[in-house]
Amino acid sequence: LVTPMQLDEKLLMFKTLVDIGFKEIEVGFPSASDTEYEILRTLIEGNYIPDDVTVQVLVQARAELIKKTFEAVKGAKNVIIHFYNSTSTLQRKVVFKKDMDGIVDIAVEGARLIRKLTEEEVAKSGMNIRYEYSPESFTGTEIDFSIRICEEVMRELGATKENPVILNLPSTVEMSTPNTYADQIEYFCKNLHNREAAIISIHPHNDRGTAVASAELAIMAGAERVEGTLFGNGERTGNLDLVTVALNMFTQGVDPQLDFSNILEIKNIYEKCTKMHVHERQPYAGELAFTAFSGSHQDAIRKGYDYMENSKTPYWEVPYLPINPADVNREYEPVIRINSQSGKGGVAFVLKQNFGMDLPDKMKEEVGYLVKGVSDRRHQELSPEAIYRIFEEHYVNLCDIFQISECHFEQKDGITSRLVIEHNKERHTIETTGNGRLDAVSNAVKMYFGISYELAIYEEHAISEGSSSKAAAYVEIICKGKNYWGVGIDEDIITSSIAALVSAANKMLKSENIVEGREERIVDIINYIQNHYADVTLDVLADQFNLSKPYLSKYIKEKSGMTFQDAVKKARMKKARTMLKETNQTVESIAAYVGYENVEHFNRLFKKAYEMTPVQFRRKYQ
């Protein structure tokens, strides 16, 4: 839905479905958002679920989502755990980059965890838990592979004739005419081993506008169960319209055991809850479903209604009442819209398509959850502009605690930077070195605030072309196991990269509650050690800063949290790591370069610091 239903609306919809006569109702995806989780807990804790109704919950075959789903269903009497993973040829190759065995492993591992959690829960509470599995994108999957993966899942779940597994076969994308879908269902039913231990369910979509026909033919082909939505207004062009299928069955003498005798009231509740509109030409429920403008049609309708009134015959038993489907006259619009149920890829797509921001893969998930969370709290769909404002407020050119107002670089022993940090309305000039410009700036930030972190990811790209183009830079830093992302945007790529680092560092400092910088003297002392790590001694340092050795040693420990020797070793090891990753020099020459004449001593210190030898480090990172 454009605007997902809220609690009171979902409760009303659930009650309506129960009153109609549905016995299995999929109430949501409780691991997807707080709203979805809340409705399920309310249904259970408020005793809204009749004893003869089973609630069904949807979950991907992912361990963390499965565990949260089991938390959500605690206390329910009857539950169907509906888990799925995509099996189509295209998604295996493009999305998951796995072969058939890899996709089977995902399904089997999910089934194994679900069975384990089910057995634990049943032992504790006596809940009645049933299983449903969907090889998502069934219509795009080789039919024999669909059978294989379902058989593996059945085996893992211990399916029997007495406790069958629901195998749901969705036309996630309706790719063919309805008879082809029915052929697939028939083939599946005839070739599935242990067929009696499965309930074959269908889940048609309406991409081609033939979902109802697909369902009817699939039932004839052997399906025993149908999934869909009221009036078919599900996702994209729609899911299966259960109202139409049920009443079509009724016209053919099959009682669906669903009560649509007051269909206009059901339609009004549906529109109120979903904010969706049942079209005037919708079969059975549309305002104009039994209206015609052709004279002969009007006569037939009038006579039909006269017959119904006089004989008390229900309308579905009058064979000449017309049903005129709508001609919507629309083309598919490839627009991604974002609400609390959207995926992380959708948010990234909007930022790229509308604003040229091509986020690093590792950043997409964090930004996606951030935007989804805002949508969930606001209970509304977010426009592209609103998404960008959220992105900008949380990542772009942040300077809450400090900013870098000037920066100059010189090629000297790597890169030497001389920059100005503005903090607490004061300006502090710092000179540091690094392997590159960003590393030199990062060292200045670390030195000034006395914090250690890893500069993990740096990516950049142009936002637009031409003389007025801007550059976007993305930086991820890791501090104490936490990840912080920053984004910089400027005409100059160097400026944008520094802004990205500053943004990430500001977020980190805020999180760590660090608002004060170090004294200028300790910054200068640490800076001197880092610039002269190979041959600096405490005597030399004391002379340089006109301090006694005992006082200097105590001062360094007090202000930096490190001894003089620790500060020297840290600077040497940092340079050694860089050389191991970026050069082919021998370990012996690197040890000598950073100040260790004895290579064995260097090896011992390195292994103690990083739990691997210099050679192992080089193999891992070079």
In short:
The protein is α/β, with parallel strands linked by helices and 622 residues long. Helix content is 48%, strand content 16%. The chain is built from 23 helices and 13 strands.
Return Rg in Å: 33 Å
Please state the structural category. alpha/beta
Alpha-carbon distance between the two ends: 48 Å
Which runs of at least 5 residues are low in confidence (pLDDT < 50)? 293-299, 320-336
Question: What does the average pLDDT come to?
Answer: 87
Largest sheet: number of strands, sense, barrel closure = 7 strands, parallel
Keywords:
23 helices, 622 residues, 13 strands, 48% helix, alpha/beta, three-stranded antiparallel β-sheet, seven-stranded parallel β-sheet
Can you tell me about this structure?
The structure is a single chain. The chain is of the alpha/beta class. Helices cover 48% and strands 16% of the residues. It is built from 23 helices and 13 strands. Strands 1-2-3-4-5-6-7 form a 7-stranded parallel β-sheet. Strands 8-9-10 form a 3-stranded antiparallel β-sheet. It has a 3-stranded antiparallel β-sheet with strand order 11-12-13. Strand 12 and strand 13 (482-490) form a beta hairpin. The longest helix has 26 residues, at 100-125. The relative contact order is 0.05.
List the helices and strands and how they pair.
Layout (H helix, E strand, L loop, with lengths): L6 H14 L3 E5 L5 H12 L8 E7 L2 H11 L4 E9 L2 H8 L3 H26 L2 E9 L6 H15 L7 E7 L6 H14 L6 E7 L6 H10 L4 E2 L15 H10 L11 H12 L20 H17 L32 H12 L5 H18 L5 H12 L6 E10 L3 E9 L2 E9 L2 H13 L4 E9 L8 E9 L2 E9 L2 H19 L8 H12 L6 H7 L4 H12 L3 H19 L4 H8 L4 H12 L3 H8 L1
Parallel strand pairs: 1-2, 2-3, 3-4, 4-5, 5-6, 6-7
Antiparallel strand pairs: 8-9, 9-10, 11-12, 12-13
Helix pairs in contact: 1-10, 3-5, 5-6, 6-7, 7-8, 12-13, 15-16, 17-20, 20-21
